[in-house]
Amino acid sequence: MKLIDSHGRRINYLRLSVTDRCNLRCSYCMPPEGIPRLQHGDMLSYEELYRVAQEAVSLGVEKIRITGGEPLVRKGLIGFIEHLATIPGLKELVLTTNGILLRELAQPLRDAGVQRLNISLDSMNPATFSTITRGGELASVLDGIAAAEHAGFPPVKINMVVMRGVNDHELLDFAALTLTKPYTVRFIEYMPTLQDSEWNSHVVEGHEILSRLEQEFSLLPLVSAEMAGPSRNFKISGAQGAIGIITPISGHFCESCNRIRVTASGLVKGCLFAHEAIDIKPYLRNAEDRELREIMRRIVREKPGRHHLVDKDSEYDIVAMSRIGG
Ligand code: SAM
Ligand code: SF4
Q1: Is the entire prediction scored with pTM above 0.90?
Q2: Residues in Cβ contact with 111 at an 8 Å cutoff, skipping those fewer than 6 apart
Q3: Ligand closest in space to the Cα of 69
Q4: pLDDT digit string (tens) for 174-201?
Q5: Which residue, by CA, sits nearest to atom 10 of ligand 1?
Q6: pLDDT tens across 4-49, in order?
Q7: Tens of pLDDT along 217-256?
Q8: Which fold would CATH assign to domain 13-324?
Q9: Given the CA of residue 98, which atom of ligand 2 is nearest to it?
Q10: What is the 63 CA–ligand 1 centroid distance (Å)?
Q11: What are the residue ranges spanned by the domains of the chain?
Q12: Ligand 2 pocket, mutate which of 18, 23, 28, 98 (most atoms under 8 A from CB)
């Protein structure tokens, strides 16, 4: 079955946030004090998250990314993933993490059925890392990456949010990591965030990232795989790994957007930056399967054609990324 939205795009990718809690406080994502706790009944239970996933797959979703908040802080995650991995028709089950708890959890995640990991890492300098994450320990993430390798995961994808004046001086170091490691390092444009009213001045656009890399390295373009997402990929000549550039701001990729998002409290968003979100909790808790299926179809049908972040005078929702899962 194929799920096609009103703009002709095939929707086959669900980002499922299992919690809005986190063990870090990245300056671009969370306020220093964290966010108010969701009431217990406001969070989707694992049974409810499973039902959303199962329904989405029966409608045509083939790839699910578990995200958060920090997904690894939610208790019972491994059992939930084992269950998810049994959904017939689900081709890809992947997870995004800050890596802090991976040392202990990489092997259980692999055994439970996670096929690939994306790890967020914005600096390889312990002090800068601690500043960006407000106290995080770089060594834990590096241990986590090693544990992922040891557990038999394919080479990890490392996501670096590039921020001018904060970590953009490390661009070349991150790219150079791919010379000796088989990782894919992906540079992500900084997106508007509730935490930073000056966000605009921190954005380093994709074309600048690319030209700074090209001044140092010879980059060969790579063809993206199906369901690989919006990254433009390159390889430094002779490198073991690859480089990706993701440009939600300067080169929005809405025309090929294939995803919907479900937050830990059951809000479904067709676009990260759209005002509209539909609360599917009532459909999960009171309605028949048929009604849940119909509301999910409606969400896809009404998925916005594009975001309007860069349009002059446009209105858009600055998002709390930790609630939505990036
Ligand atoms: N806690 C996990 C992590 O950090 O990987 C998963 C959730 S996090 C919200 C998902 C992704 O969103 C991370 O890669 C993070 O860097 C990214 N993100 C959060 N706020 C962002 C922003 N303002 N601009 C660009 N990316 C952002
Ligand atoms: Fe936590 Fe991820 Fe947000 Fe950082 S980006 S505060 S690790 S949810």
Answers
A1: yes
A2: none
A3: 2
A4: 999 999 999 999 999 998 776 777 888 8
A5: 326
A6: 777 777 888 999 999 999 999 999 888 888 888 888 789 999 999 9
A7: 999 999 776 555 678 999 999 999 999 999 887 766 677 7
A8: TIM Barrel (3.20.20)
A9: 7
A10: 19
A11: 13-324
A12: 98
